């Protein structure tokens, strides 16, 4: 594992899971140059400078998230090359060191694992799951409890037709050309993706919401699982499903939108706000549906 470099130093590759509240960031990706905007990656790499690697440490992010989007568990790989005679960091020491030197309280490293030198955090991912949180019964944004602000999409409605949303979601399942739900700006070789799972269900509010507020507010969760998604695909699908839940669209119209392959239509051009979206998990290999915190199950590597 790793490779022997000049002067006897050893380069070790790690897979790191990390989480963040995206409110203060211009997305997860690093912002280079003199711009005032900053990404989560900037802070991770700044913390990694304290590892005293022979070569600068760069994080290769598994899943890019936009400004304002959060992550319960994102992933990245990084290489650390210690000076000659020093053994590679144990993964738990690496994770603790990164957390010690992180300068933003909205970011936390969850776990780290040694992986083969050719492992790639983005290409090796076999599943990604996104969670989108909605709230109804809140007619003005100021009525939302402060502990939920920037963590859900406030809908000015008392209820949603969840059964209709669930019916509409079935049209999105499977392998399709999702061009109708792709935002411009991120060309890809193919717009075909396989949506393995989509669910619409009651969600959990913060335990810090008062009982009086809980009686009028209702939280809802939408989850989407695929190996990969198109740019803003989840937020566009969410906006269409919410339109169904509010009665602006019939469930069968979602199939028509999907088959149109037209990203500029009246309904599919709408994008749900970023602050309700969370990257929930990134899975690798035989890890399957188990928690990402258990780590990837690789074979033996020397």
TrEMBL record:
Tell me the ranges covered by the Pseudouridine synthase I TruA alpha/beta domain, including all copies: 19-122, 168-284
Fetch the InterPro entries from UniProt. Answer: PsdUridine_synth_cat_dom_sf, PsdUridine_synth_TruA, PsdUridine_synth_TruA_a/b_dom, PsdUridine_synth_TruA_C, TruA/RsuA/RluB/E/F_N
Q: What class of enzyme is it?
A: isomerase
Sequence positions that bind substrate:
130
Name the GO terms of the biological process aspect.
tRNA pseudouridine synthesis
Where's the active site on this chain?
A: 66
Q: Which reaction does it catalyse?
A: uridine(38/39/40) in tRNA = pseudouridine(38/39/40) in tRNA; a uridine in tRNA = a pseudouridine in tRNA
Cite a single GO MF annotation: RNA binding
Instruction: Recite the UniProt keywords alphabetically.
Output: Isomerase, tRNA processing
Q: What's its EC?
A: 5.4.99.12
- GO cellular component terms, A-Z: mitochondrion
Can you tell me which family this protein belongs to? Belongs to the tRNA pseudouridine synthase TruA family.
| HAMAP family from the UniProt entry | TruA
Q: Which PANTHER family match?
A: PSEUDOURIDYLATE SYNTHASE, TRNA PSEUDOURIDINE SYNTHASE-LIKE 1
Protein name according to UniProt: tRNA pseudouridine synthase
Species: Macaca nemestrina (Pig-tailed macaque)
């Amino acid at each position: 594992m790793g490779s022997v470099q000049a002067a006897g130093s050893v380069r070790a590759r790690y897979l790191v899971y990390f989480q963040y509240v995206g409110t203060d960031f211009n997305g997860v990706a690093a912002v280079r140059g003199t711009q005032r905007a900053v990404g989560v990656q900037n802070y991770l790499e700044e913390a990694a400078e304290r590892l005293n690697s022979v070569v600068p440490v760069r994080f290769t992010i598994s899943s890019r998230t936009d400004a304002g989007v959060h992550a319960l568990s994102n992933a990245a790989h990084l290489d650390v090359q210690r000076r000659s005679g020093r053994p590679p960091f144990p993964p738990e020491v690496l994770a603790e060191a990164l957390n010690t030197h992180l300068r933003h309280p909205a970011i936390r490293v969850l776990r780290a694992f040694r992986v083969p030198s050719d492992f790639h955090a983005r290409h090796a991912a076999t599943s990604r799951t996104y969670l989108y949180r909605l709230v109804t019964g809140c007619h003005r944004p100021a009525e939302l409890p402060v502990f939920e602000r920037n963590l859900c999409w406030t809908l000015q409605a008392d209820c949603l037709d969840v059964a209709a949303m669930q019916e509409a979601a079935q049209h999105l399942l499977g392998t399709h050309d999702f061009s109708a739900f792709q935002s411009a700006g991120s060309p890809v070789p193919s717009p075909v993706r396989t949506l393995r799972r989509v669910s619409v269900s009651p969600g959990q509010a913060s335990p810090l919401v008062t009982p009086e507020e809980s009686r009028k507010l209702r939280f809802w969760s939408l989850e989407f699982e695929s190996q990969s998604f198109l740019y803003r695909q989840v937020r566009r699908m969410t906006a269409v499903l919410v339109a169904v839940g509010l009665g602006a669209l019939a469930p069968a119209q979602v199939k028509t939108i999907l088959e149109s392959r037209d990203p500029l239509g009246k309904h599919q051009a709408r994008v749900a706000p970023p602050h309700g979206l969370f990257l929930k998990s990134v899975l690798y290999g035989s890890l399957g549906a188990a928690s990402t915190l258990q780590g990837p199950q690789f074979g033996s590597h020397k």
